[in-house]
Amino acid sequence: QEVVSEESEEESNGVNLMEFSDEILLHILSYVPCTDLVLNVRRTCRKLATLCLDKSLTHTVLLQKDYKVNKDKVKQLMRDIGKEIYQLNMAGCYWLPSSTIDHVTRCKNLVKLNLSGCHVTSLRLSKMLSMLQHLRSLAIDVNPGFDASQLSSECKATLSHVSELKQTLYTPSYGVVPCCTSLEKLLLYFEILDRSREGFMLSGQLMVGESNVPHYQNLRIFYARLAPGYVNQEVVRLYLAVLSDRTPENLHAFLISAPGSFAETGATKNLLDSMARNVRLDALQLPKAWINGSGLLQHLKFNNPFYFSFSRCTLSGGHLIQRVINGGKDLKSLTSLNLSGCVHCLAPESLFRKAEDDIDSSILESLVVSCCNLRHLNLSAAHHHSSESLGNHLCQLLSRLKHLLSLALPVCSITDVAASVEKPPTTPNLVPQTFGRKVRIGIQTYPRNLGDQANQKIESSVFWALMGSLRFLETLEIIGSSFSSAMPRNEPAIRNSLPPCVRAQSVGDSEVAAISQLTYLQSLTLAQLPNILTGSGLLSIGLQCQHLRTLSLANLGMMGKVVYMSALMDMLKHCKCLRDLRLEQPYFCAGAQFFQALSHCSSLQRLCIVSRSGTLQSDAVMSFMASCLEVIMCHMFMGESLTVCKNLQQSIVRSFQAERPALNVVIFPLLHEDLTEVIRDVPMRHLDEITLFKSRVAEEPPNLWW
């Protein structure tokens, strides 16, 4: 009886969730997916039934990464709260049948709708938009077969009021742009392939009957991102043709992201000249050919710029300071800067300079002082070598940027100058970074104990100090300046890789351990760190960075052996929040021990492994998929035979597709000639976010869309 009375007393003194105020409960419920709130939680009690339908929870519905949602759940959701929804995001819901879109018509008050990555035909789009008269923001895909002539007059009336439009184009078309006569923000993503599945060359000419008069007079933001390919360049020029005739007076952001060579034409030159005369910009990104060798930046006027991208341009540091930063004047408004691949951006001039020469620290210092509020900075894909001048190391100067949330650096930029100059390369680094015959070598001992590791001289290194000063950093990328992924876009897999920079030879386990100071780190990318001997720093990150959600590791240590496998498996046992894992390493063995360790990542949703001559154990993969119930994407490009890959892929789909509607499985030989055909069927969300390797820091302006 005494025990029972004590238990009842504890229960009476305990905290009852329902006793919290409505404000606190609403805040807690805001972290629950809307489908769970409406379809499950609100059925538990009367109080939650009322709170789950509060306007603060039903005003905006986000389904874009709710991988468990299906057609029936969407139908029921729209039936229950459709009239209360003002913003609906279904981006990337590739697994939902196109008929699901029909239920969106219940949301009569919709103002903002994102259907990027969803299957929508012209007729369905017309029927849906005819019912959404309050719509002002729209995101859609334009697929082959799209016909603007099928859009009804009621649909066009709705589009005439749309002020924000995002279009992803998979076929040459204007889409719905000509119908949007009130456009203020236009985002275009060009994903058109140069060849059809049958191998025929495609043309960039638009279909007969397409209107060629987009309405840009009210345009404030123009953004275009091109996938590789000549057709994409042809089509974007048609969109720009109208802009070159008359530049909108209110234009304040003009951004074009184009890989490779995108030549300037007379029309684009007229457009840029008109912009220089008539507008003041807040955000700018141009193809490198439009900037290189021109005096454009000297004539463009800026208001309160928040985003600049000069990715892959030959812009020198002297021009950067004089023409963009106005000789070091105050640029506190700038929050995002992308200088990826801008090899001379920290040098006074580029005419007689080699890419490997030391940087001019005064240029970087001017940049840091002027742009003191930077939150996103990308300096990757270049050799930024610091001189031996005391206090002028790149890491020391960047430590002044206390507001940084994301940072991308080349591996050679983080090494201590004295260490890289005085210390001879260790024995493992004398082995060529090739895929040739394996060589047996000795591996120097490295402290496995984290306490001993932290007490080494790394605490006095400039990179250790930088990590200590950026305690609120959420995204970090350390990428070798000569690194290239084995899986480029629309091309066969790369069979050989360039050797790492000489300055990067000393970067290894101790630098990785320094990253563990970033308590709030959410996304980490490490590529081409040649001096990884045991990977012991990875365990330190696993223990200390408990918010880590995305991890990408590529070509660490020796290329002929995965030297960090043991440390990686120890690390994964502590990554409870990890959702995305990408591994790219030759000779990677995806066996039972690896997948057993990976099974500890209970939140894992997406896995991608790229490995030339890599192997896998089918039984281990199946056991992993059975134990990790959240995994909806499994991409493996290995050295196994086509038969082994196909059989495993079919087994996974057959066993788990019914329970996981969003399941996407691609298992294929990395060096197979049909790899590009397989890649084109991968949903764009996965392809863009994890399968293809790229630097993502400052890739786009912050808050460009949702």
Automatic annotation (TrEMBL):
Gene3D superfamilies registered for this protein in UniProt: 1.20.1280.50, Ribonuclease Inhibitor
A Pfam entry, by short name: LRR_FBXL18
InterPro entries: F-box-like_dom_sf (IPR036047), F-box_dom (IPR001810), FBXL18_F-box (IPR047948), FBXL18_LRR (IPR045627), LRR_dom_sf (IPR032675)
Domain F-box, residue spans: 14-61
CC annotations in GO: SCF ubiquitin ligase complex
PANTHER family linked to this entry: F-BOX AND LEUCINE-RICH REPEAT PROTEIN 18, F-BOX/TPR REPEAT PROTEIN POF3
GO terms (BP aspect): SCF-dependent proteasomal ubiquitin-dependent protein catabolic process
Recorded superkingdom: Eukaryota
Name the record gives this protein: FXL18 protein
